Amino acid sequence: MTCTKPPAPNLAARLRSLTDLIDESGLCTTTGANPDHWFPDVEPAGNATTQRRFYEQAAAARCFGCPTLNECLEVTLAEEGSLLLEHGYEPHGIRAGLAPWMRLHLLVASGSAGTDAEEAA
């Protein structure tokens, strides 16, 4: 069992603050928003290029115009980067207007899945 260190207090407080903002103003949290829209039943598998493109467009459309899109991306990358590093987590659903594989690519490309989270803040 590996021991992981918790996020730095200032980062944890920032993420809580951003999450509160998303909860108050995000399109996905407004009254009447259907959570199933952000977690489609089937994600395209393999290299189904057309299916993946359609999914990416649907993801962008779901979050288009959201006033907390940037905050959501920051929280998402911090959360998923930590989970990926600790547990081999694979992203799913739509977050910050991005499909899961798009977020995974961002995490891997930026090195967020293995760096000190405090440096990213």
From TrEMBL:
Domain of life: Bacteria
Protein name: 4Fe-4S Wbl-type domain-containing protein
Organism: Nonomuraea marmarensis
PROSITE patterns hit by this protein: 4FE4S_WBL (PS51674)
InterPro entries listed in its UniProt record: 4FE4S_WBL (IPR034768)
Domain (4Fe-4S Wbl-type) ranges: 27-105
